[in-house]
């Protein structure tokens, strides 16, 4: 059963539903390392299990071989997650389109480092709301909003339903853009509430529901 989120907004200028999926757990997540925009950090066994669960959930919602436009971040973890989902749906993984604007937040010099080491040097990595802090030399949330917003505008002509497999932080910003959330005063970007790894958000007519809540536990 879908869970309604308290996020309502003006209707986006696109017909069809958007299924925004967060990839499964990776080796970086399991090791408690800051992943950021690293290109290829493979899924763990737990991550593959989460991808299986996402695929099964979408199969229940959409049935076999649905008319579904596939989009993904070009990172290995997003494409691995999509490959499992595509098998469940009996759709062609090779038909997926990728766009670098869907990648995760760039963490600058913090990227690849252990959370504990960064916390020792710089204090908490997450704020009181569970939002990942920007690294001193990393990407700003406003920049994420600009790039995912540009992607959304450029692909507004996509017909029908689509699935977008991406990342924890960048998906929160995209969800904020698609639901018309106001900019966070501190971050200068709309940031939706976080969802666990392996989750799928459904956005239709500017309203968001949780189509599938994943079993992952990375806080971003």
Describe the structure.
There is one protein chain. Residues 1-12 have low confidence and may be disordered. The chain is 32% helix and 14% strand. The protein has helices at 27-31, 45-62, 76-89, 115-122, 141-154, 168-178, and strands at 3-4, 18-22, 68-72, 97-98, 161-166, 200-204, 207-212. It has one domain (3-212): Rossmann fold, CATH 3.40.50.1240. By secondary structure, the protein is an alpha/beta fold.
* Count of alpha/pi helices: 6
Shape: globular
Structural class: alpha/beta
Q: What's the β-strand tally?
A: 7
Just name the CATH architecture: 3-Layer(aba) Sandwich
Q: In angstroms, what is the radius of gyration?
A: 16 Å
Give structural attributes.
220 residues, Rossmann fold, alpha/beta, 7-stranded mixed beta sheet, globular, 6 helices
SSE order and pairing:
Blueprint: E1 3-4, E2 18-22, H1 27-31, H2 45-62, E3 68-72, H3 76-89, E4 97-98, H4 115-122, H5 141-154, E5 161-166, H6 168-178, E6 200-204, E7 207-212
Parallel strand pairs: 2-5, 3-4, 3-5
Antiparallel strand pairs: 1-7, 2-6, 6-7
Helix pairs in contact: 2-3, 5-6
């Amino acid at each position: 059963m879908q869970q309604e989120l308290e996020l309502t907004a003006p209707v986006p200028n696109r017909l069809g539903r958007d299924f925004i999926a967060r990839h499964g757990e990776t080796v970086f997540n399991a090791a408690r390392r800051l992943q950021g925009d690293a290109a290829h950090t493979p899924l763990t066994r737990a991550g593959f299990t989460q991808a299986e669960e996402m695929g099964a959930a979408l199969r229940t919602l959409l049935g076999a071989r649905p008319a579904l436009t596939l989009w993904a971040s070009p990172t290995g973890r997003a494409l691995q997650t999509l490959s499992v989902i595509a098998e469940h749906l009996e759709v062609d993984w090779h038909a997926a389109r990728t766009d670098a604007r869907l990648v995760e937040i760039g963490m600058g010099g913090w990227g690849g480092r252990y959370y504990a080491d960064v916390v020792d040097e710089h204090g908490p990595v997450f704020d009181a709301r569970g939002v990942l802090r920007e690294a001193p030399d990393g990407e700003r949330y406003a920049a994420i909003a600009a790039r995912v917003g540009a992607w959304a505008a450029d692909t507004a002509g996509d017909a029908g339903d689509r699935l977008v497999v991406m990342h924890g932080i960048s998906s929160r910003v995209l969800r904020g853009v698609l639901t018309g959330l106001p900019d966070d005063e501190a971050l200068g970007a709309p940031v939706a509430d976080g969802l666990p790894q392996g989750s799928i958000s459904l956005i239709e007519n500017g309203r968001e529901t949780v189509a599938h809540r994943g079993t992952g536990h990375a806080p971003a």
